[in-house]
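Record type: monomer structure entry
Structure origin: computed from sequence
Chain ID: A
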Amino acid sequence: TGGSLQGVVYPNRAKVPGENLPSLTKETTYEVKVPETIVQPSDGSATMSCAINGADKEIKIPKGLKKDDTFTFTRTDSETEKVFTSTLPSVPGMDVVQSKPIIW
């Protein structure tokens, strides 16, 4: 059998604004300043720590940079924490690790 419920409309994904869909590979670019402790030009192996959203991240300082120089780096993150509920069995691109059956 088949059919449809009156008044139920499935939204066309092409019409949903992209900023409302979670991304598995959201890229964010940051600009950072080399700390005062790096006096000599970096040889490419020097690292520094910076806080991103409250978490410390170790990043390599590009070769040739010294104190007060700035550089950019890009970080790729998943936005799956934005998903609270879904009518799909899983978020596209993700594997289900644990699920709990709904008891009516």
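Annotation 1: Residues 13 and 21 are 9 Å apart (CA to CA).
Annotation 2: The first strand starts at residue 26 and ends at 33.
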